[in-house]
Write a structure and sequence with these properties.
With 186 residues, the chain is α+β, with helices and mostly antiparallel strands. It has one domain: Histidine kinase-like ATPase, C-terminal domain (Heat Shock Protein 90, 2-Layer Sandwich), CATH 3.30.565. It has 6 helices and 5 strands, in the order E-H-H-H-H-E-E-H-H-E-E. The protein has a 5-stranded antiparallel beta sheet with strand order 1-2-3-5-4. A hairpin with a 3-residue loop joins strand 2 and strand 3. Helix 2 runs antiparallel to helix 3 and helix 3 packs across helix 6.
């Protein structure tokens, strides 16, 4: 049994807050905002058992915004024998040259003694992508075949995020991902 969110917490006193962090190139080059956001969530003892899930969702959405939104790297760079080496080499080079743009991470948290609802929004200043060319229904819900696919070196991360969330949507011009997680404290 998980401990209550706090000693004063009951159905008449729900917990709700919003945190937002906007990261610019100087910080994008040298720091990772995910530990800072996770720390804020882990202050609540009942959230600690969800640490790995929250880390996965935040990290995947953030890295997609950075790699594909701001740096405009394609997933196809990961293909081939040295694909990941090539991708990360290109990523390092593009990140070093990055001089404009931003990524905003927002978390809306609502909880009562039964559980929590967490909405995670990740937006970037990139051009986005054609939403009609990307059907989440093709990869969600996550199937074992997607995770076990050995020939496909990309695309599994969003499927994994989708399996951890109640909902995963792309909004705007494709530069805004919204994930909704429902967590039980029972």
């Amino acid at each position: 049994m998980q401990p209550p969110l706090n000693v004063y917490h009951d159905a008449d006193h729900p917990s709700a807050w919003h945190i937002s962090l906007k990261v610019f190139p100087a910080s994008l080059k040298y720091s990772d905002p995910i530990p800072q956001l996770l720390h804020q969530l882990m202050v609540l003892p009942a959230m600690r058992r969800y640490n790995h899930c929250l880390f996965t969702v935040l990290t995947e959405l953030y890295n997609n915004a950075l790699d594909h939104g701001l740096l405009r790297l394609t997933s196809e760079l990961k293909t081939g024998k040295l694909g990941f080496d090539h991708f990360y080499s290109q990523r390092k080079q593009a990140l070093g040259a990055l001089d404009s743009g931003w990524i905003e991470l927002s978390i809306d948290f609502n909880a009562d003694k039964m559980g929590a609802s967490i909405q995670i929004d990740v937006r970037d200043s990139g051009v986005g992508f054609d939403l009609s060319q990307f059907a989440l229904g093709d990869i969600l819900p996550l199937s074992e075949s997607v995770l076990n696919q050995k020939t496909q070196m990309h695309g599994r991360g969003i499927a994994l995020v989708g399996s951890l969330c109640e909902r995963l949507n792309y909004l705007g011009c494709g530069n805004h991902a919204r994930a909704l997680m429902q967590l039980s404290f029972q």
